[in-house]
Amino acid sequence: MNGPADAGGGRLLAMAGALLATVIWGGWFPVTRMGVLDGAITPADMMVLRCCVGAIVLAPWAFKGGLKADRAGWLGSAAILLTLSGPFAFAMGLGVRHAPAAHAAIFIPGSFPAIVFVLGLVVFKDASTPRRWLGLAAIVLGGLLVGAAAFGREADVNLTGYLYFHACAWMWAVYTVVVRYSGMSARRALGLTHVLAALVYGPIWLAFGDSGLFDLSAAQLAFQVGYHGLLNGLVAMFLYTFAVSRLGAAEGAVFAALVPCFAALSAWPILDEPIGPAEAVALVAVACGVFLISAVPARR
Fold first, then answer.
1. Residue 207 burial by CB count (10 A; 0-12/13-18/19+): exposed, middle or buried?
2. Residue 210: exposed, middle, or buried by beta-carbon count in 10 A (0-12, 13-18, 19+)?
3. Which DSSP string do the residues of 110-150 spell out, in sequence order?
């Protein structure tokens, strides 16, 4: 039998895994912006980088149950293909061309739980509590502060990046709702997402995609594939899923709320994008909002 020491060790391992996952996810935003701005990768490359490793590793679980998204059917597969599959990575690559990585982290992982909350009210009749509405208000406040910071920093603000970030948040939210409705396991959903992207967007990328990957050295290519495909696409997802299974959704939400913070902190040394007072307050507001919304279990 497992004693208290075993349980304590399991919790510490789960917490360490969740923390590492959030660090990897947070670093993905400045790493992506750096690669796009330097010309090492293009938005089209992002689609392939995100799915290449996962499509190989998770293919058995994707094909075992077929390419139909279980209870969500072929319409669910189409929704996955049009959201967190290729389009999410492509829109992210386009967005960071025009806006800071910290702002991307606040807009995307910060606002998508709020959209999921609203969609859950409509689709699944989820619980509506004052705590969750307060979380929604905090996230909206964070978004407004980021917008104010962007307009205050530049006289002529390019809103294109923020529109792409908002689209990414909606894609992630719709994907989450579809996967929940489908009843698929996290492993199967992730495998289906990667395989569908590889089957559809891989040939399109080869035929028409503007790419910077062919000009990279072997070491640079290994870094891009390793970070985007292996670390961000597989390792972080596995660690976070493992952590939630041990800690529960409420405690897992605490770590998810840290993603914008890690992204902003890592963007400072990597991209020389300092955190101003407005961004700092926005990060706190969004982190609190994500926790308030996500830490409350949904009612099925």
1. exposed
2. exposed
3. HHHHHHHHHHHHHHT-----HHHHHHHHHHHHHHHHHHHHH
Of 6-20, 100-114, 264-278, least confident by mean pLDDT is: 6-20
The answer to whether residue 8 sits within a structural domain is: no
**Helix H segments across 183-276?**
186-208, 218-224, 236-247, 249-256, 259-271
pLDDT digits (tens, 9 = 90+) for 122-174: 988 887 889 999 999 999 999 989 888 877 765 456 789 999 999 999 999 99
Element (H, E) at 36: helix 4-38
CA dist 232 and 194 (Å) reads 13
Phi, psi torsion values for 69, nearest 5 degrees: -75, 55
The encoded tokens of residue 114 equal 């709020």
**Residue 65, SS3 per DSSP:** coil
Q: What's the pTM?
A: 0.87
Q: Residue 141 sits in which domain range?
A: 16-294
What are the tens digits of pLDDT across the range 258-290? 899 999 899 999 999 888 898 899 999 999 999
Residue 189 has pLDDT above 60, yes or no: yes
Q: Is residue 2 part of a domain?
A: no
Answer whether residue 11 is part of any domain.
no
Q: Does residue 6 lie within any of the structural domains?
A: no
DSSP secondary-structure letter at 228? I
**How many domains does the chain contain in total?**
1
